[in-house]
């Protein structure tokens, strides 16, 4: 009877054990550390199941494991039994499940989470969020690019979850969002205490080509390169260095964008206040070339005061030359003050005005009629350009090349580089022109030959050639031509063949043309003039005397 009772009790206990809830594989269970050995912790998860977990799963990144016998921990039951009859458990997977539950709640509530950066991957970093690993893109590390992330590694700090997908195990976080939020609060507080025109102290945080960012104690202001000094600053690094403490003035505050504009030169005396007194018009001063452009060169008279030498005011003679071929950067030059515009803060300077006008110097040194010598610089369709003293040119017009040849023919005798002599015929300083004459070198033969000859004069010429249309004659070396119609008053005598080469004949001068260098001559005009004179002196043919009688009387009077 007793035996039957014990069998019934055993059967009841067995059935009770089968009816007890056993943990499901793939769930998180609680366990107790019963031993630590060989780098592992042996954990009793109940239900007469034990499992082993590597100690490193109990450590945070960069920290030592924190586990001891008797500690209660949660683990993830991967399998109830392995080949050795032990439960397959994982602390890391339990932490991950726990972390995902916590992170999903924080993400839903838009709350910050705490984590630590522990590794670097392509495009960013890995962050441990207390069991779950998240991705931190490089652009989300800080408000500005971070060159060295070493100081941030292993440091517990807040992050903002940007995106998460539990099914794919993907979490993206941002450190920058936390900084920007904190920075915005700090900026608002600092800006509220700033006023335009206030002088504050700051530290140079960053330098760019266009200026420098100055930390004013939690908020950055831009110190533009044009507001660093009154003088020209090519690059901010010329006067500032990162980490330097500087005094600046708040120029402008944009309440909406929280942008602050700063200035350093505003704390210094404006040199333009004294420009008018220090640099009167037409005075000459020494300056330094700071910049060269296509339209001129900028010259610094003193730090903060620059003037422009326009290309047209750089040289008397070099008209179409780039300013860089006349002056060079950093060169010291003498300049004259031509104009000052105080309102626009502009000074117009002249370089050529510090030197004498070469045309004035030439006019003084070589008056009209003076002989000069120079090299043929250029040959054009209207004349020669001759290089003269003072780096200026004079022009010999075609009509001033030769007395005897046409200009188009005479110019063929010259080429570039020829050294020629000429006479200065005119200097126009205002128009910067010098007229020269080569044919005037030997004097004006025509003027010398006909110096005493006037229109109406009777001269004796030598016949040098007989032509169909008339005869060629010579007077004092000057050639002239008597047309057939001017050979005689009598039409029957207007024959060139009645003259011979070498004959001497008297002719009347009808024209003296200095430009064409020709004398107008006529035998006919002489005969008509003689007839008029005889009639006036010896009577008129109207009184009954014949023309022959009158001329005979005239000839008789001449003989007596």
UniProtKB/TrEMBL annotation:
GO terms for cellular component: cytosolic small ribosomal subunit. One of its GO terms (biological process) is translation. Signal peptide: none annotated. Residues 26-92, 110-176, 197-265, 282-352, 369-439, 456-524 form the S1 motif domain. SMART domains: S1 (SM00316). The keyword Ribosomal protein applies. Pfam families: S1. Keywords: Repeat, Ribonucleoprotein, Ribosomal protein, RNA-binding. InterPro entries: NA-bd_OB-fold (IPR012340), Ribos_protein_bS1-like (IPR050437), Ribosomal_bS1 (IPR000110), Ribosomal_protein_S1-like (IPR035104), S1_domain (IPR003029). It comes from the Bacteria. Binds mRNA; thus facilitating recognition of the initiation point. It is needed to translate mRNA with a short Shine-Dalgarno (SD) purine-rich sequence. Belongs to the bacterial ribosomal protein bS1 family. This is 30S ribosomal protein S1. The lineage of its organism: Bacteria, Pseudomonadati, Pseudomonadota, Alphaproteobacteria, Rhodobacterales.
């Amino acid at each position: 009877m007793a035996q039957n009772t014990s069998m019934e009790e055993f059967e009841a206990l067995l059935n009770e054990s089968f009816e007890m809830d056993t943990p499901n594989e793939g769930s998180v269970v609680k366990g107790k550390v019963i031993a630590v050995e060989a780098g592992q912790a042996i954990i009793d998860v109940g239900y007469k199941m034990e499992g082993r977990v590597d100690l490193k799963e109990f450590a945070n990144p960069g920290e030592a494991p924190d586990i001891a016998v008797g500690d209660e921990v949660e683990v993830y039951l991967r399998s109830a039994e392995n080949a050795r009859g032990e439960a397959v458990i994982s602390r890391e997977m339990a932490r991950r499940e726990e972390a995902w539950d916590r992170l999903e709640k924080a993400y839903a509530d838009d709350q910050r989470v705490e984590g630590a950066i522990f590794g670097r991957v392509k495009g960013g970093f890995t962050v441990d969020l207390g069991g779950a690993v998240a991705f931190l893109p490089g652009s989300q590390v800080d408000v500005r690019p971070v060159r060295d992330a070493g100081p941030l590694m292993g440091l517990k700090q807040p992050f903002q979850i940007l995106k998460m997908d539990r099914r794919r195990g993907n979490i993206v976080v941002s450190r920058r969002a936390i900084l920007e939020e904190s920075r915005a609060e700090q900026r608002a507080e600092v800006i509220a205490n700033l006023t335009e025109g206030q002088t504050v102290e700051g530290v140079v945080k960053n330098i760019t080509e266009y200026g420098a960012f100055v930390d004013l104690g939690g908020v950055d202001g831009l110190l533009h390169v044009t507001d660093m000094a009154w003088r020209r600053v090519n690059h901010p690094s010329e006067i500032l260095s990162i980490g330097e403490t500087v005094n600046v003035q708040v120029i402008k505050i944009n309440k909406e964008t929280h942008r602050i504009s700063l200035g350093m030169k505003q704390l210094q005396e404006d040199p333009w206040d004294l420009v008018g007194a220090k640099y009167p018009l037409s005075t000459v001063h020494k300056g330094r070339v700071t910049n060269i452009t296509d339209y001129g060169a900028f010259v610094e008279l003193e730090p903060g005061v620059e003037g422009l030498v326009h290309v047209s005011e750089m040289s008397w003679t070099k008209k179409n030359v780039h300013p860089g071929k006349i002056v060079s950067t950093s060169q010291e030059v003498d300049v004259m003050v031509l104009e000052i515009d105080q309102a626009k803060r502009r000074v117009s300077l002249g370089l050529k005005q510090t030197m004498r006008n070469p045309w004035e110097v030439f006019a003084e040194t070589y008056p009209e009629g003076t002989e000069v010598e120079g090299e043929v610089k250029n040959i054009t369709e209207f004349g020669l350009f001759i290089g003269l003293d003072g780096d200026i040119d004079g022009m010999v017009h075609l009509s001033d090349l030769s007395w005897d040849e046409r200009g188009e023919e005479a110019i063929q005798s010259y080429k570039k580089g020829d050294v020629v002599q000429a006479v200065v015929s005119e200097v126009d300083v205002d128009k910067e022109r010098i007229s020269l004459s080569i044919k005037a070198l030997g004097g004006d033969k025509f003027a010398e030959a006909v110096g005493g000859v006037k229109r109406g004069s009777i001269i004796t010429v030598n016949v040098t050639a007989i032509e169909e249309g008339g005869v060629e004659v010579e007077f004092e070396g000057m050639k002239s031509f008597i047309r057939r119609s001017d050979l005689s008053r009598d039409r029957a005598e207007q024959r060139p063949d009645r003259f011979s080469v070498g004959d001497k004949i008297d002719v009347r001068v009808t024209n003296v043309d200095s430009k064409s260098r020709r004398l107008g001559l006529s035998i006919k005009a002489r005969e008509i003039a003689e007839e008029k004179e005889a009639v006036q002196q010896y009577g008129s043919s109207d009184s009954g005397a014949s023309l022959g009688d009158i001329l005979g009387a005239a000839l008789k009077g001449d003989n007596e």
